[in-house]
Amino acid sequence: MLRELLSAQDRQNELLEELVNQLGAAHKQRATELGQWKQANPHLAHSCRMAAEALGKVQAEFLGSLTAEINANYESLLDGEFMLNEFVDRFGPRMAHLNGLLQVLSQLSATPNPTGATNAP
Question: Which sequence spans correspond to the domains of the chain?
Answer without folding.
Answer: 1-40, 42-121
